[in-house]
Amino acid sequence: MEHTTLSHHLLLAGLLFALGLTGVLVRRNLLVVYMCLELMLAATTLAMVAFSRFAHKMDGAVFVFFVITVAAAEVAVGLALIVALYRRRGTIQSDALDTLRD
Amino acid sequence: MPDGLFTFFAALTLGAALLLVLSRNAVTSAMGMILALVGIAADFFLLDAYFLGVLQVLVYAGAVMVLFLFIIMLLDTDDATGSYPWKTAALGLATFFLLAAGVVWLFHWSGAVSATAAGVTPPELSANPAEFTTAAKSFGRLLYTKYLLPLEIAGFLLLVALVGVVSLSKDATEGQA
Amino acid sequence: MSPDFSSLVHWILFLPLGAALFIALFLRRAGALAAWLSTGVAFAIAALALRLLTATPADTRWHVELAKLGDVSLGFGYLLDANARLMLFVVSFVAAWIHLFSVGYMRDDDARGRFFGGLSIFMFSILGIVVADNLLMTFVFWELVGFSSYMLIAHYFDKDYAAAASKKAFIVNRVGDLGFILGIAFCLAHFGTLDFAALGALKPAAGWPWLLGALLMCGFIGKSAQFPLHVWLTDAMAGPTPVSALIHAATMVAAGVYFMARISFLLTPDVLQLVAVSGAGMAALAGLCALAQTDIKKSLAYSTLAHLGIMGCAIGLGRPELAVLHMAMHAFFKATLFLGAGSVIHGCHHEQDMLKMGGLARRMPVTTAAFVAATLSNCAVPFLAGWYSKDAILEAAHEHNLYLFALLALAAVATCLYSARMVRLVFFGPANSEAADHAHESPWTMTAPLVVLGLGFSVAAGFGATTLIPAAALARVAEPLRAMAFHATSPATLVGLVALILGGFAFRYYGRAAGVDSLRADLPRVYGLLEFRWMDTFYGWLVDSVQRRVAEFIAFLDLLLINGVAVRWLGAGLPAVVGYLTGRTLHRGQTRLYALSLVAGTLLLAWYFLAR
Known about the structure:
Chain A is mainly α.
């Protein structure tokens, strides 16, 4: 078995990103859309760690630390927004939330 | 084929991500997400980033996803009914294959990445890059010396998020709007 | 530099922090335990500071680098020269006795735990300022001191005026700190270092930039209540009396003076001139205003303002060692005066109006003795502690500038006048109220500090320091101490004599009518002028008329330009046109459609850039 190279890890990260993006475009439940968004973020952190490891520098890993922190904060606020939205509209299906149209 | 462990975890992660994207039930999606995150954390471990792997499990899979689950249970929505209209399904498949093709081409077939992996040193992007270690201690040292400012700002960001969430969660009917 | 002494400083600095944390976590309800822990720690660090003062002739230095931003190194460290050791001792010694006093004074207060936690954190903050070896560290502890002061003034937070007073103190200090931080930025940009020792070694070819000294001085103006940022000190009397004694008489306000002494080498002559004039002016004015206050603490607050003015003047005259000396002496007798006031207030069951006191000499003899001793020191009676420093400053002013001398002489006269008034109204004559009639002497926890600080240090600190402490330990302060000698015909002595005589007259004058302020009865307009809060009224007018108008104008501009032109026309105009054209297709309100367009656009861009 050959060693895993950088491209293997990046491939994985890229595929996960693609899956996440597809999920964002296809799903209607806002919470699932949000989770897919987070999957995209996690995929990019994977890519960053891979780069950090193969370029033999720590800066990438430290950046991932901050990405995780920001993601946590962002999820908290985003979920609060979704709950507030649910309270107002009674639904979190994105198809039903289309009052911002012309 | 690459390393056995890597293949296993990669398959696990991709399978879990598929579960996340395709499942009708929101809770099942959440479970898939957790599994995917654990798989990614395992990949971190394979990449010698032990501290980050643990952090991922603790914070991301542990705290963030638990929060998601709480909200999913709180909002108690129905499962997605019926199958998707053909337009959406086609769009989804098309997007995915387009992106996947792009990813595979970029990272596997084109020469961009293999050159790096072969050991060509990339041009230095920062003035004093940090040496690669796996110890959490030196991670912490880096955070408090070179990356002190971002650390402080991250702390501030968390405070702002906290205040924001509390004010968002207030009932609109109590007191003044 | 012996390692033994830097570890001593670690103990001095971190013991009160430890006490504060312990109290905050575990002892909030156990008031008595918190009180004794805090007091014990205070005495321990006083003992350590005394050891430090008497043992080391050489400077102690210690430094650890915390962050390196490019070329600039930021760190935490100690620089203990002679001034620092003296200040360390004075602060910790006076504070220890005030802690003991608070044990008695706050006995009936339920929130004692919080109070003593606040005192401990204050100790940590002020000692940090004293030992700091660079500007940034000084600033951090400066802010901490401001926070502790805020917390302690608002101890009775359910009283509106106390909460308002603490806010005012913090905000006014903040204004000064703005200048301070600009000064730090300027220093960093210009000289690349914030370290005191490094700055001291620099001898810039073109001289020091005047702006640097002026900006750093802003911090001093705020913290040490110099004109025009002096308005917070009288309101700060809303806090418990030990807080007034510790913070607003002996230590925090003196931190500004200490800081100026530390950076005195970079102050240019024009800045010094400004400091001297404003200081002397404040001294004279505040002294006169003290005559128009009926609240004993407010009167003492004005007295503190006057003395701070004298210290400022000393710095402005280019004699920072005299300012430091006066700060030390002032700490002793002013703390005694405040503690005495506290004892009196406690004895009269929380009555603070001087006109309702009277005749307390019979009923509270120990307090009276200490208070009178401190008053005499305040009035610079020869060979008492206050005389050594105040007369030295008068002499220095006489050599330098006769106008300053005149102002300081007026201040000296005013001091004797208001002191005589205070002593007469509070301690002598008939008792003017029930409370005063039934007053009794305070318990030992309150009288012991009065005796030590009042009868002991306020009297003997001067010649005690010249005889008992080796000159090497006091370094720059020792020289003026030893040089003070009683010359019968020197201008300072003459001023002092005149002041004392006028004080004697005042003593009799205020005894004429009981329960009434004689000056108010005889010259109501003069009294009214002295009583009126000029600066507060000015600031109030400034905010109401000027600042509000400016804010309203800017809001109007915002509405007109940004909201109207930029958003409605430019920002919304073009998109409105585009939107009209694409409304049916693109603006459907469906999130997924928007996400799709986003992704499609990004992919197009990515393809474009990658294909190049």
